[in-house]
Amino acid sequence: MTPQSNISVGETYAMAGPGDYFALLKPRVMSLVIFTALVGMLVAPGKLDFFLGAVSLLAIAVGAGASGALNMWWDADIDAVMSRTIKRPIPAGRVPRAEAAAFGGFLSVLSVALLGLASNYLAAGLLAFTIFFYVVIYSMWLKRATPQNIVIGGAAGALPPVVGWAAATGTAPFEAWLLFTIIFLWTPPHFWALALYKRGDYERAGIPMMPVIKGEASTRRQIFAYALILGAVGVTPYFMGMAGLFYLAISAILGVGFIALSWSVLTAKPDDYGPAKKLFGFSILYLFALFAALLVETIVKMGAGLYV
């Protein structure tokens, strides 16, 4: 299997700086991975060694960055024709494609080895699987093959809290997979909202995103359906004893907001993408706030001496 090469990418290169290699790591995506993994680590029962926990979190962050670099290596050709990605280091001609591949490959091995040494083999294996799934299953296969690319591929982005939980405890119980499920269900409406108002980008790049293949009306209906399910699952940690009333209130209010905005997307005129843009922005706040609420409650418990 080889990257698509309909477009010549970066045949001449300017001098790359540290910022260009940092950009390969997809720092905004990495920040969400770090945050959700941290919540998984802290919500997990038991006491966590601060130093080993910090090293484990660093390893997870490096693994997320490695996935980003390898994704940019593979997708350099389509990045070159999409308005939101054309300034990335490879299509912009600042980093050679081969260097990005080597950089991502080195960081992948380093992150998995470091996590195995700092925590346990289960966490390291889950991190290795996450990188493999994102790069091979999603980037190399699903992304260019099916409109369900985001649905199935979303598993990679949903795994960090499970990896964090495993790093802290050496186990991956149902509670960790509940956090996975929340992110997994959040991913399709989040990215499909973006795909609605960036449809032209995906058409030019030949990416079979849902609005391109199934049409915008179908995409809007599916966004709303996922929002309903997400709203219900989002409050579940409270009923599982993982969270308290503060989390229940936050998740319920934000869930209603998510559903309401999804309804606006569903009922908007065909050429009105304002609601989709609002939903995309709100979806980021939604996920961050849910995990932040879990984190706040956990820190309060630790401070009160109730975290055992």
From TrEMBL:
The chain crosses the membrane at residues 21-44, 50-74, 95-115, 121-142, 149-168, 174-197, 223-240, 246-267, 279-300. The keyword RNA-binding does not apply. It catalyses: heme b + (2E,6E)-farnesyl diphosphate + H2O = Fe(II)-heme o + diphosphate. It is found in: Cell membrane. One of its GO terms (molecular function) is protoheme IX farnesyltransferase activity. It is a multi-pass membrane protein. It comes from Hyphococcus lacteus. The gene is ctaB. Converts heme B (protoheme IX) to heme O by substitution of the vinyl group on carbon 2 of heme B porphyrin ring with a hydroxyethyl farnesyl side group. Keywords: Cell membrane, Heme biosynthesis, Membrane, Transferase, Transmembrane, Transmembrane helix. Carbon 2 of the heme B porphyrin ring is defined according to the Fischer nomenclature. PANTHER family: 4-HYDROXYBENZOATE SOLANESYLTRANSFERASE, PROTOHEME IX FARNESYLTRANSFERASE, MITOCHONDRIAL. HAMAP family: CyoE_CtaB (MF_00154). InterPro entries: Protohaem_IX_farnesylTrfase, UbiA_prenyltransferase, UbiA_prenylTrfase_CS, UbiA_sf. Belongs to the UbiA prenyltransferase family. Protoheme IX farnesyltransferase subfamily. It comes from the Bacteria. This is Protoheme IX farnesyltransferase. It is an enzyme of class 2 (transferase). Its EC number is 2.5.1.141. The keyword Transmembrane helix applies.
